[in-house]
Every structure is written in C-alpha cells, then in structure tokens.
Design brief:
Helices cover 69% and strands 0% of the residues. The chain is mainly α and 228 residues long. It folds into 3 domains: 42 residues, no CATH class; 96 residues, no CATH class; 70 residues. The radius of gyration is 27 Å and the shape is flat. It starts with a helix and ends with a helix.
C-alpha cells in the first residue's frame, strides 16, 4: 500500500522529500526498487525541541489524521514549547539584568559619585509572564473545542496504550474513550478493565465500549468473589 501511494504521488516532490526525512529506510527501499527519483534535504535546528516541533507541525498538515491524533500532537507540541519558553525567559531575565546593570553603572558614573550611594547592581528585576490557556490555544489550532482538548489530555494521561491505539486508528471516538476512562478512573484495576474491554469489542464489534467495560467489571467482580 505504501509503495502504491508513493507511485501515485511520486510526482509530488514535497511529499517524497517529507517521507524521506521522516522514514528513511522504508521509503528509500521502495524508491530504489521502483527507480523513483527523489532528493534528500537537510534541516538544521537550534535544539532537539525545535526539531520535534518541526516534525509535529509537518505531521499535523496531513489531512487524514483523526482528531485525537491532531490534539495529541498539539499537547506534545505544547510540552516542547513550554521547555523553550522557560529557556527563553531565563535568557531574557539574564539580558534584562545585564542591561539594567549597564544603565545604572553609566548613570552612576555621570553623577557626582563622591556623595552618592552606589547602585545596587545585583538586584533582579521582576519578569512578568502573561498566563496562556494552553488547552484553548490547542483547540483553536486543531479547530475543535477546549472541552474536547481537555478530554484528550485526560485520555493521554490516564488511558492504557491499547485505548490510545484505537483512537489513533479512528476505531473509537474521543467521547467514548473519555466516558470509559472516567468510569474506571478510581478503580484499582482500571488498566486491566480497559484492556479487556478493548479485546471484547475486537471479538464482538457490535458491543459498545461502554458495555464492554461494564461486562469486564462484572467478570472481575465475580472472579474475586470466587477467589475470596
């Protein structure tokens, strides 16, 4: 399927370039096998965070991404941006201190220094940071609601990988996943319940995820009574 897609879109150089950048060996092998022409390009970044942000921005441009994946990428990007923001604030604070020290020293030297107090060159100015509603910004970027972003954030933090994979493939909805994650969030066996529920809907596609969770909880309760 990947080979067919490259064959169909082979004339689109930007796509081929992007693929070569992200997944070298698979795409390279297919291009070599079918004698497709391609070019490689190099990108330089100031940091690993910058490289990751670039990758995420390129991935988000794909039209066929499920909403969950777009929001998940947005949340991941926000982490890298937060790292950069902290670093930039630290640099800015240092530059502000150095600038103020330089200005105060110049002013001090211009005055009659004999009877003047020496400037305090070591005091740090306050750095004011305007709070940013990260969830709201991600919602705007992914063209969804802040509530949906909050649900995805909870799923990413609390759901086992099996549930996330179903969301990434579009097999279940964000609302379905969020509902069942909320149902079991205080259960000691929440991961086991959700994993078994995913297995149930794979074996019986007509069963809803919510009902599968309820059935698994009953089965575990029954098992514990037998063992007890």
């Amino acid at each position: 399927m990947l080979g067919l897609y490259i064959f169909i879109a082979g004339s689109n150089k930007s796509i081929v370039k992007r693929w070569c950048f992200f997944a070298g060996h698979n795409r390279y092998g297919i291009c070599q096998k079918h004698n497709f022409q391609f070019k490689t390009i190099e990108h330089e970044f100031d940091s690993k965070d910058d490289a990751c942000i670039w990758i995420i921005d390129n991935q988000k441009g794909r039209r066929n991404l499920p909403l969950f994946v777009k929001v998940e990428l947005g949340l991941k990007k926000s982490e890298y941006l937060a790292n950069k923001e902290k670093e930039n604030q630290s640099i800015a604070a240092k530059q502000n201190i150095e600038k103020r020290q330089h200005e105060e020293l110049n002013n001090f030297l211009k005055q009659d220094c004999l009877n003047s107090d020496k400037p305090d060159l070591n005091s740090s100015p306050k750095v004011w940071v305007n709070p940013v509603d990260t969830l709201k910004e991600i919602a705007k970027d992914t063209k969804t609601s802040r509530d949906t972003v909050a649900k995805v954030k909870k799923i990413v933090e609390k759901a086992p990988e099996e549930v996330k994979q179903k969301l990434r493939s579009g097999d279940i909805s964000i609302n379905q996943a969020h509902k069942v994650v909320s149902m079991v969030q205080n259960d000691d066996k929440k991961d086991e319940i959700l994993k078994k529920a995913i297995e149930k809907i794979e074996d019986h596609p007509k069963i809803s995820l919510e009902n599968a969770v309820k059935e698994v909880k009953k089965e575990i309760k029954k098992r514990n009574l037998v063992l007890g």
